[in-house]
Amino acid sequence: MTGGGRLRITQRRSAIGRRYDQKRTLKALGITKLQQTVVHEDTPAIRGMIKKIEHLLEVEEA
Asked: Which Gene3D superfamilies did the record assign (predicted)?
């Protein structure tokens, strides 16, 4: 699934009470608010960040 495409990433659950590294991962993805959507290239680095906090996100192909 990796390579070439774009991913639409939306924060669906709150980061309140989550570990610091999970909050920093959200910030690294460019997400600062609940329900905010960002679009990123589908790379292994982005996939790794998504995997770390997939319980907070909704991800779809863009």
From this structure: Ribosomal protein L30, ferredoxin-like fold domain
Contacts of residue 33, defined as CB under 8 A and 6 or more positions apart, other chains included, come to: 11
* Single-letter residue type at 43: T
Radius of gyration of the chain (CA): 11
CB atoms within 10 A of CB 6: 13
The pTM of the full predicted model, rounded to 2 decimals, is 0.89
- What strands, in cross-sheet order, belong to the sheet with 57-61? 37-41, 6-11, 57-61
The reported pLDDT for the residue numbered 21 is 98
